[in-house]
What we know:
The strands form ten sheets. Strands 2, 34, 35, 36, 37 and 40 form a six-stranded mixed β-sheet that branches. This protein has a five-stranded mixed β-sheet with strand order 1-29-28-18-17, with no helix packed on it. With about 600 residues, it is mainly beta. The chain is about 5% helix and about 45% strand. Among the domains are: about 5-35 and about 455-595, no CATH class; about 295-385, Immunoglobulin-like, CATH 2.60.40.
Amino acid sequence: MAKVLSLKPDHKLMNPDFDGYKLCSDADITLYSKPVSEGLESRPAGPTCYLGTRLEALHNHLFPDPFHPGAVYYFTSRGHLIKASYSEDLRLSAGEVVWQADISEEINQDENEGEVGQRQYHASVCFPSPDVAVASNGRGSLHLLQTGDRTPHSSHSWLVNFEMETARGLLHQAFLKAGTSESDEMTMECLLLSVTTPTLLRENSDFVITDEQLTNTKATSLHLLHWLTLKQNGPSWEVGCTRVMAGEGVIQYCFLDSSASGVILLTHKNYSFVADSECPIVKPDKEEAKDVDGPKFMYMQTNEDVTVWVSVGEALKGDINVQVTTKELSVKVKEDEVLQGHFFNAVQADLTTWTLGDGRLEIVVAKSVEDERWESLFVAGEAMGEEVEEPGSEIASRLAHLTSDKWNPDPTPDVPVYDPGQLEACDQAGEELTLMHLSASTHTPTAMAHLGPTQHLFNAQIERVGPSAFCLRHDVDAVLWQPEGDDKYTHTATYDAFGYVRASKTSAKFTCASSDMSYVAVGDTRSHIYVFYQPGVVGGGELRNRKSGRRLGKVARQLVISLRTHDPVMGLHAAPGLLYVLTEKTLYLYALPTS
């Protein structure tokens, strides 16, 4: 069973006295620009679907180098990988070609030409070490490149060390994993993201689908995560293992953990393994699965009744058969029995009610003897579920001192009352978010956190190697979480009020944060970039709040940058003191004031 996680913010990193962002002049910003002579890589050919269109629309054409924060790369329409970097003496370099990808359009005469699974993707590149890069042309070729020195002053072409044919997809992550002992070889772990259809997934003989929701999905498109493990063989490399995961719905975050023992996912739907060349996936027998794992359910009891919740997926009301006797409960979906057991104590069967909504069945049964607490829903040895405490329980009464029946029993003049009625439509999250760690060895989740309707804001590469951090909205603030292992997440930074600010930017396309966490930038689809700094010490005098008169020791600055063009913004990258903005025709570099 997966370990239940809870993301608890560090209150030492929260600022309850935050007084808002102060708009500052952009006079101290230095602008550099270079033309994109060949133009950017065009939209890849392929049929239209929601997941595919979203992947293309939000594709960031700028690829940062975590080992050299002042350098970025982008692919041109001819497949040239261009390096642009900044240094104090050279300023913004003119851009040099370091490698070329084969992005020629393929003419597919296959009968599945119109299928989503046959689409092409943008070329992409990752930097797992200071002298190695991994690139994908988005058409089914993966290359390991020997880059040598990548500092701003270096100028040379990269050499191909290894190449292989692989599934089409967008390269999302690549990192080097050192062996745990002298006998272990170094491996290169790569993660590619692609789009397919349920039909193609089911028809692929290499895939074994164990998730019934995935089998019966009504979605028109699915995401595939291809996990490739390459082993070092002398001076070259060879394929060690290939794994594939599948699921429906948008992926907000997906990275391999630091030990490559599994994948960390932040999604709105469930994902599962469908292929593993090292440890083949076997579809379990339905009866064996019931005996080993048991049904999944939760229940809550009061003095008078017991409420049971059972997940039934996409089942309709006519598919469900609930039978309740004085001592027994049976729930069937079509012909499959999903829950069965003998009650811990007797119930009044004729008072049973049940309702269905959002894929969950709710059953309410009345106790025969009131004011009698059950130790479990069923007798010992039968299916075990998770008990949820009711609001008026003994546990809740012990926490009563933390609540109040008054709206604001102890008002503070400087701190406004939080009123949920002030929230706007943009503040609401549409779907519930789930954080999970999928283990490569067991093919099941080892840790999981149900975050509820929480807004995911952006991802940021804080460390040079390892998984990126992800930023979630917490009330009006934004909290940055850094994964550590497979079940630990550390609160590393807070962007005050940025959760509310980001929700108001309805035309935003990109959001990124500097690796030193000093600021976060929001890029509109065109024309404007908004920069929000962490609170800093005021220079040149003291500031006071006009309304309260309170002195402000620190002020959070905001910059609004108006681009010199109305071309669509195709890439955005935030580095300490530097902000790169890429349009279809021009690369802009803004040297930002640091104090």
